[in-house]
Design goal:
4-stranded antiparallel sheet; 34% helix; Alpha-Beta Plaits; 6-stranded antiparallel sheet; elongated; 31% strand; alpha+beta
Length: 240
């Protein structure tokens, strides 16, 4: 299960857990969103669920899925010492009673809600990561792999960033913008099998602190979007 952080309009973080595979399980029968709200027993200082309690929440979710086999699990949201557990279903029949019974079994304070969502807008707008959150997830994975390999993330190193565009002129405009922001050592490639066939690689010497890297990714995504292109991510070697 993956997770990412999402800030609301008040700049308060919500931690969202999801599975990439869920997207492929959605059907026309998923017409209603069902949610079980549980009061956390041992929230951390940020009001999020801790890993040990998350295991207990997952057991609660699995128990509910065995009672109501038609449910499709969507994900968790956690903030303010609560966790929200979301499902899709054809209707809400039996959900409130079974969710409440399972919560009592696991000694949780519980409340229930439901609403219609025939076009799966809730899942794609509130659970599935945006292109920005998706990039943050990949950043976190790469940094974790580097740390496991003994990397010192505080050390400056050359990092390669990759972009794709549908036209060479769009690539050139982004290249100029990157040059003005201290990127260098540009390389250009062409992939004839892709609609975004013009590929740009750019290097920049930076450290790999996650907050700065996530902000940099957001900026590069916006730059690529401004020219109808895509930012594909970064690559670097281990620095010890």
């Amino acid at each position: 299960m993956e997770f990412y952080l999402l800030k609301d309009e008040n700049k308060v973080d919500t931690k969202i857990y999801f599975d990439f595979e869920t997207k492929d399980k959605l059907t026309d029968e998923n017409k209603v969103v069902l949610c079980s709200f549980l009061k956390l027993k041992r929230p951390n200082e940020l009001g999020f669920v801790e890993d040990d309690e998350l295991d207990e929440i997952i057991n609660y979710k699995d128990k509910l899925l065995t009672k109501l086999t038609s449910l499709t699990f969507l994900g968790f949201k956690t903030k303010d010492s609560w966790i929200e557990i979301y499902f899709y279903a054809l209707d809400k029949k039996g959900f409130e009673s079974n969710a409440s019974l399972c919560a009592k079994e696991f000694d949780y304070q519980c409340s229930i809600s439901s609403f219609k969502d025939k076009k799966h807008k809730f899942y794609f707008n509130s659970i599935y990561p945006s292109i920005y959150s998706f990039s943050h997830i990949n950043n976190k994975k790469i940094l974790s792999e580097l740390v496991e390999a003994g990397d010192d993330l505080n050390k400056n190193r050359d990092v390669e960033f990759y972009f794709r565009f549908s036209t060479s002129s769009a690539l050139q405009r982004v290249k100029v913008a990157l040059q003005n922001d201290a990127y260098a050592d540009f390389e250009e490639f062409v992939d004839e099998d892709d609609d975004l066939r013009f590929i740009l690689k750019a290097k920049k010497n930076i450290t790999l602190m996650i907050d700065e890297l996530d902000q940099q990714s957001d900026d590069l995504i916006n730059l690529a979007i401004s020219e109808h292109g895509e930012y594909e991510g970064f690559n670097t070697g281990v620095s010890k």
